[in-house]
Amino acid sequence: MNRPSDPAMNLNWGDARHFDHTQDRPCCLCGRPTPMRSHASEPVHKVCAEDWNATHPGEPRRYTRPGLNRPQHDVGTWRFHNDGPITDQRVTVLTPVTTDAPPAAVDIDLEPGQRDLFAA
Which residues share a beta bridge with 26? Predict the structure, then answer.
């Protein structure tokens, strides 16, 4: 099978979840054995998945979130996609914090000799 010529289509499956150390299974696209797994745990060669993505341009696609210095780009179909860059999807909102004096320490009545047994 030929690899897609577009380097953006090359899948990045470096995560260990894409590799089954216990057994090879027949690729769902070509039928040859592979230890590789898709995000949905389908056995598939990385190259087979890239070819499938390239030959199915009309399939639903996944895209990265655009960043300040990074445009949005296609990371493959929903069936086979790369892990893409890690993007924080949480919105960080900083709120002012009031700093009051800490509460006063409370002296506990202890029997002599037990004072050092407790952490403050």
Answer: 33
Phi, psi of 105 (to 5 degrees): -70, 140
* Residues with Cβ within 8 Å of residue 52, at least 6 apart in sequence: 29, 77, 79, 80
DSSP H helical segments within 3-112, as ranges?
46-55
Q: Is the dihedral of CA 48, 51, 55, 61 positive or negative?
A: positive
Residue in the block written with tokens 């004072």: 115
Q: Which two tokens stand for residue 57?
A: 């341009």
Q: How high is the pLDDT of residue 101?
A: 65
pLDDT in tens, 53-93: 889 888 888 888 888 888 887 888 878 888 765 545 555 55
